[in-house]
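Batch manifest, entry 17 of 40.
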Amino acid sequence: VQLVESGGDSAQAGGSLRLSCAASGYSNTNYCMGWVRQGTGKEPEGVAAIDSDGSTSYADSVKGRFVISKDNAKNTLYLQMSSLKPEDTAMYYCAASPYFGTSGGSCQSYAYWGQGTQVTVS
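Output type: structure tokens
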């Protein structure tokens, strides 16, 4: 199982970025997928999750600004980020959980993680 993120970059406040996560070694239709971010000196925060049935969940801090989606044919997860704020600056990780159900922007018990992609907003 391998998750590879891309799309992290520097952006101006108010701008947009799209993160991608390419999955290999399994089908993401059988997993709950999510994005977790960690800023310097901060605890990890689940920001968005999408279950196998397509239902989504977001952290309050990103609701209305971020959209999570997936392309099952490409086995790829996306995070469209808009109206970016400096507090969105963090390393963003793609993660997969074999357990279904989402809450507050996170799946349960992530089992697989990508290497992360850095987002910097100024």
